Amino acid sequence: MEYKIRIIINSRDDRIDDYALKHGTFYHQTAWSEIVKKVFNHDTYYFYAIDNKDKVCGLLPVVNLSSFIFGKFLVSVPYFNYGGVVADNNQIKSLLINCAIEKAKELDADHIELRETIKLDNLSVR
Prior knowledge:
alpha+beta, Aminopeptidase
């Protein structure tokens, strides 16, 4: 099956929130993007995958942070212990992580921090 990766920036999306509540955590919801932007002035990128039936099948929220000590980096999700990649399979996880890597390069970030609760095995990440 082919998957397409989409991105939303600093906004909410009910379809993504539905997927987040079923497969992720409370911290995967897009409402956090508004809070993070309003309170901390950080941009939030929600990468999400859709299948050929336009159904959401994966999600990776990342926030663009900058620190004097740690440099510029993307983190999924800051201020909480949870919020890494959530997907229906490893192929989708790899696609989402690779899109986050491309965004990190575009933003000249030093690294990406994924806050995972399980080990990410058998992924094809460039």
